[in-house]
Amino acid sequence: MAALAGCLVVAAGCGVGRDRVPSPPASTDAGGTVHVPVGSSTQMLTVDGRTRTFRVYRPAALPSGPAPLVVMLHGGFGDAGQAESTYGWDQEADREGFVVAYPDGLNHAWNGGGGCCGQPGREHVDDVAFITDVVHTVERELPIDSRRVYATGISNGGIMSYRLACDTTTFAAIGPDSATMLGACDHPTPISVIHIHGTADHNIPYAGGEGSGFAKVDGPAVPAVVASWRTVDGCGPPSSTTTGVVTRSVASCPDGRTVELVTIAGAGHQWPGSQGHGLVGRILGLDPPSHALDATATIWAFFAAHPKP
Q1: What's the first-to-final CA gap in the chain, in angstroms?
Q2: Do residues 263 and 206 touch, judged by C-beta distance below 8 A?
Q3: pLDDT at residue 60 tops 70
Q4: How does pLDDT run across 99-147, given as a tens digit for each residue?
Q5: Distance (Å, whole) CA 238 – CA 76
Q6: Which end of the chain is more exposed for a tag (fewer CB within 10 A), N or C?
Q7: Residue 81 burial (CB count, 10 A)
């Protein structure tokens, strides 16, 4: 029950009560070459002496040339299987022709900076090294376009996507949802950013400050985080449009980059457009997903339009 409570207070996207999708391991031939099958498969890496796992989804049809890669990072108390079954990225990959990697956080959390979150935050686990190793591993196994590698995530996973933007040059764009940026970001490289957030998120408040979740995430206001990336990218002033409860604030930046904030009035801590959280999740009071937009389709459309210059 403690884990379920953790889902409630840390990441409403935990997928409580949702069936996990079994995933066979990728196969290795006698020469050591890994063969990634069509569909979902699992692999292992050793990073800093720890055995880490991740899943890869390979659509049946990929472009004739190198394909984009999306790294989807689960929220606190989630895992790769839950992220794969909940947020619709496999289905988007089938429609649009890209590969998806789902890394597993150590003990269901990520070291996203500022002491967050869980065991990885306490023990300073090098999740940046692990996730970049996942990317390089997939690039060796499949024809991946290095100019079109992206990271997205919910809650603790979204925090981790900001850490990747701060500490690597691997990604063309990031798409955090229901997240904030924690810890130092001293020398970031310009990168396109789309951030989705509900104004009624109590776990990671839109206006900043300490959230009500178990992790007590205490971060800056979301508009301030996004504004900091407009500064990094040298963007012009943003322009805003509102349709229903959705407001988009979009800033154009040099070299074709964009920084965009998508705000959903009244939405809580959730992945918009995803499935519900099951009966147990409803009993625990997890925020129901907003259907004002489809976060997966929205983030992918942004990624597709923003390769590395």
Answers
A1: 47
A2: yes
A3: yes
A4: 999 999 999 999 999 999 999 999 999 999 999 999 999 999 999 999 9
A5: 31
A6: N
A7: 22
Q: Which H or E run contains 260?
A: strand 258-264
199 CB burial (10 A radius; 0-12, 13-18, 19+):
middle
Token pair, residue 267, equals 């939405």
Q: How many domains does the chain have?
A: 1
- The Cα–Cα gap between 123 and 206 comes to 28
Amino acid symbol at 134 = V
Decide if 17 is inside a domain.
Answer: no
The pLDDT value given to residue 64: 87
Domain assignment of residue 144, yes or no:
yes
Ramachandran class of 294: left when φ > 0, alpha when ψ lies in -120 to 50, beta otherwise = beta
Q: Is residue 114, in this structure, part of any structural domain at all?
A: yes
Residue 126 forms part of a structural domain: yes
124 sits in the region (left: phi over 0; alpha: psi -120 to 50; else beta) called: left
Q: Which residues, 6+ apart, have CB-to-CB distance to 187 below 8 Å? A: none
Residue with tokens 């963007």: 235
Which pair of structure tokens corresponds to residue 162?
């900001």
pLDDT-based confidence at residue 276 (cuts at 50, 70, 90): low
- Residue 6 has a pLDDT of 35
Range of the domain at 138: 34-304
What is the rounded distance in angstroms from the CA atom of residue 68 to the CA atom of residue 63? Answer: 9
Whether the pLDDT of residue 296 is over 90: the answer is yes
Q: What number of other Cβ atoms are within 10 A of residue 148's Cβ?
A: 20
Structure tokens at 90: 């496999």
Residue 163 contacts residue 128 (beta carbons within 8 Å): yes
Provide the pLDDT for residue 181. 98
CA distance 105 to 31: 30
Strand partners for 258: 252
pTM score over 0.70: yes
